[in-house]
Amino acid sequence: MAGAAPQGPPQGSGQASGGSTGYRQIVGPLLLPTWAVIGVFLLLPVLLMGVYSFLTKEFRGGVIWDFTLAAYDQFFVTRGLFGDEPPQIEWTYIAIFWRSIWQAGVCTLICLIVGFPTAWFIATRPPAQRSVWLFLITVPYWVNLLIRTVSLKFLLRDNGPLNEGLMAIGLISDPLPLVNTNLAVQLGLFYSYLPFMVLPIYAAVERYNFALSEAAADLYATRWTILREIVLPVVKPGIVAGCILVFVPSLGAFLAPDLLGGAKTFMIGSLIDEQFKGSQGNWPFGAAVSMILMALVLLVLLVQARAAGKAGAR
Amino acid sequence: MSTAIDVQNVIKKYGQSTALQGVSLAIADNEFFTLLGPSGCGKTTLLRCIAGFEDVTAGEIHLFGQNIASLEPNLRPVNTVFQQYALFPHMTVLENVAFGLRMKRVPPEARRARAGKMLEMVHLSSFADRLPAQLSGGQQQRVALARALAPEPKVLLLDEPLSALDLKLRQAMRVELKQLQEDTGITFIFVTHDQEEALTMSDRIAVMSQGRVQQIGAAREIYEAPVNRFVADFIGETNLLEVQVERVLDGIAQVILPGGHRLTCPAAMMAAGPASGAGRHHLSIRPERLRLTPSGPLVAEVERIVYLGTDLHLLARLQDKTAVTVRIQNNTREGLPAPGTWVTLTPEDGAARLLAD
Ligand SMILES: Nc1ncnc2c1ncn2[C@@H]1O[C@H](COP(=O)(O)OP(=O)(O)OP(=O)(O)O)[C@@H](O)[C@H]1O
Ligand SMILES: [Mg+2]
Q1: pLDDT under 70 in chain A at which residues?
Q2: pTM of the model
């Protein structure tokens, strides 16, 4: 990479003559690897997906290089079962989107309610204990997500330990139908993404200056007021980061809905997943759904950034 | 005058270490009371116990006659100016200052007026809409002061409130703080490790060391009649000479100086207590009360003369190698002994004080 540096004037003289141009001459080439990484791993796949979403599907997967809006048309418009009725809005996929957003929102909220006290607890332990608690929080996540989700299914199924245990102590006579429910999916999502909530909030609370709470108490604030008016606003960046880190991946999650849910709990992630599997797949449609999902996520992030920018400028 | 704060035998332990080892103080209403002591002596800890951020391990604290042990900090009519300011970073300067008033449910107009007045007092009116991060250290400290004063507490605790200011501003704020305290009649408990600050501002000073109060008294009392070696050494400069006490009678001690000469000196604190009587003790003589004389009880070899502007310091060593300092007014150009020569020194009448250890 050093070889990429230009044979320009030596840095010292470049700065002395007051050129930001000299500075730029050096920095520009040094940024090349960064741009290469971003290009190859970020822009290129998105671009590829964008292009694919406008292609024609081939049966048994793959694409034909004929440009068409068919994939988006399939998402938003219906012309009846046989395609001969006047075009109407197709609600099927929008409903899946809505359900996913709702599920992801609920998951984010639950993660926040559980994650905030957890993060608070860890951040207020003596420093030596904190790393132990953090370690314990992250230990389950060293195991592959698929295996963890499957094991959750084993736990919840009719003859799994939970139902058998409850029946053994006589609380219930028939197994509770836990698998293939919204509850199971929610549990799976919660279990998958909780640390993404705990860690950023932990980082924010750990940096929180508890003298602020004392100062507020000194000025006659009650505990509740201190939490609402001092603590929450100050650690808000951590909370926002945690919410984004949970909401975005749970919106596109497919393992938990696939394994723990049924047809009624179908989510975007599974919809996309299906389009790229086997002979039933439809690559352009999968790409189109992905693009729409990405647009949605970007919109959420944009709104959040606008709100944060406004708060910061205050 | 009534007692504002009565601290009775307060002990504070952090695990194994003891930050306060039995502190007793009675602070009068309207008093400007200073806690003075070296870093780590427990000044902040004592303030935190009074404010309610720490529970005392033993002992009691009474506020206007009421035991406040079970009172939460937000219910104590005591406000604090924190050593590290602790300004709310997400609130403007004005919102910070108005916070206590808002918590006391002062109506908005009255609140704004009062907060504005406080900002005026600390010369920060034009900074009302800034965030704390946009202020210098000294400005932040003044906001902290205004914030603590705004709700008109009965007692104000100030933890080194001037330490971040430059010399000029510090001197100006000293005068203003003192004026403010007299005008408002609020009891101030002022923490500092700057003795000049303590001596110039306080009605009374408590000198602390290692979690204990060493002496309580007015500035002059503490400076001129220190009760023990620590206080004598900590407040101002002094020469500490190890002496042999021959006898103590009616508060007057007869001692043998290094070099063998005899001297009689006041020893009020020696008369009572177990330390009374013969043995080796320390004698304190302030540098400005030691004179160069043709003959005298102390003989010393001049080492150096240090120029201080209005004064000169003559650094010398007694025969037993004890270092002594003599302060001489800088109004004579002649007659200063050269380094290496031997001189004789005499303490002024009553200047030598025998100290408890
Ligand atoms: N939370 C704590 N845990 C353990 N020890 C503490 C704690 N707070 C203070 N101490 C100890 O108590 C002693 C007194 O501390 P304190 O903060 O009261 O000193 P200070 O007189 O205010 O010093 P400074 O002038 O440096 O502010 C110190 O030895 C300190 O190490
Ligand atoms: Mg302190």
Answers
A1: 1-22, 263, 310-314
A2: 0.79
Amino acid at B51: A
Of all ligands present, the nearest one to the C-alpha of B43 is 1
Cα–Cα distance measured from residue B234 to residue B121, given in angstroms and rounded to the nearest whole number: 34
In the 8-state DSSP scheme, what is residue A219?
Answer: T
Alpha-carbon span A163 to B181, nearest angstrom: 71
Helix or strand run (H / E) with residue A88:
strand A88-89
Residue type, B98: A
A-chain residues within 8 Å CB-CB of B52?
Answer: 217
Chain B residue with CA closest to A210: the answer is B86
Distance B352 CA to ligand 1 centre (A): 35
Query: Which pair of structure tokens corresponds to residue A198?
Result: 């705990």
* Complex prediction ipTM: 0.81
pLDDT given for residue A287 in this prediction: 93
* CATH architecture assigned to A94-275: Orthogonal Bundle (1.10)
Q: For tokens 């020569």, name the residue.
A: B341
**Domain spans of chain A, in order of start:** 94-275
Q: Is pLDDT of B1 > 80? A: no
Nearest-CA residue for atom 3 of ligand 1: B14
Q: ∠ at Cα B46 (B44, B50), nearest 5°?
A: 115
Instruction: Identify the residue whose C-alpha is closest to ligand 1 atom 12.
Output: B19
Exposure string for A7-18, b = 16+ CB within 10 A, e = fewer: eeeeeeebeeee
- How far apart are alpha carbons B1 and A296 in whole angstroms? 71
User: Which residue did the predictor score with more confidence, B102 or B255?
Assistant: B102
- Which whole-number Å values give the CA distances from B86 to A209, A218, B126, B133, B159, in the listed order? 8, 11, 21, 11, 12
Is residue A232 within 8 Å of residue A117, measured between CB atoms?
no
